[in-house]
Amino acid sequence: MAGRFDPLTRTAVRGGxxxxxxxxxxxxxGGSRRRWSPGGPVDLGLILGPLRRGPADPTFRVTPDGSxxxxxxxxxxxxxxxxxxxxxxxxxxxxxxxxxxxxAELPRLLGADDDPAAFVPRHRLVHASHRRRPGLRLxxxxxxxxxxxxxxxxxxxxxxxxxRSWRRLVRRYGEPAPGPQxxxxxxxxxxxxxxxxxxxxxxxxxxxxxxxxxxxxRVADRLEEAAAMDLPxxxxxxxxxxxxxxxxxxxxxxRSNGAADALTTGDLxxxxxxxxxxxxxxxxxxxxxxxxxxxxxxxxxxxxxxxLLAGRTPPRRAPRMPxxxxxxx
Length: 329
Prior knowledge:
- The protein has 329 residues and is α+β, with helices and mostly antiparallel strands.
- It contains 15 helices and 9 strands.
- Among the domains are: 13-114; 144-243, Endonuclease III, domain 1 (Orthogonal Bundle), CATH 1.10.340.
- A hairpin with a 2-residue loop joins strand 1 (13-14) and strand 2 (17-18).
- Helix 4 (124-132) crosses helix 15, helix 5 (144-153) runs antiparallel to helix 9 (207-218) and helix 13 crosses helix 14.
- The radius of gyration is 20 Å and the shape is globular.
């Protein structure tokens, strides 16, 4: 039975230099620690927000002091990572078998591989949104399956339905996360592949989405290799799995790879929002969205993110997507 893990030795890293040698004991217990100097503004909420699957996500929490807590399954095992501000630096503290990996990847998680300077606004609204959010960087988790599963759950359903499915499956088949917060680590690939059909149904997940997750879990090692690929190769690797199309691969690679050009196509709302924000058009489709965002090639996901953050959306003229709850059928 999964339980809590013993506290690990603390370390502190400043600007890439380790001030306390790894393995050296420090007082007060707690998790392993690292400090990182980002060299510019970072907004933890904007950067890490896309990793949160609804306000009650059992793998993610924001505490009153502004710290972000994240439970994750690393290649070295489960870990809980707390991320907070320490003056001009960011401090990470981690617990569990995957603590070392989580701290090593902390800079990438906070956008160290991202290049915000490569982005040049071409529209007044985008320029204003960009100027107001200097701390926006694109996260990179380096974990494909962790990003893929909740995206598949979001296919063709409302966000609320997908979030409820995610909560139920993680709490039933995941494990308690190490560390002081009551978080949960999502199931491993083998467990995803063995969830019985009736529990998918109870979680509100139809056969098409559950089959896609099972297929992906069975080739999880191959999919994880995509985290080190460029965008075209990574998308092709994911889309080789039946049930994963351009929408799913883009939403996944935005998080796992920090892919600045992974524009989401096939979305019900995004083309209309982009068209309305940039031109006032209300009925833009994917083709029109691609045309409007062509000046941002290489940075189209960042451009779309800034447009969404600007909050200029078309008036709603149709009812919301109807809710469906197959778990109650």
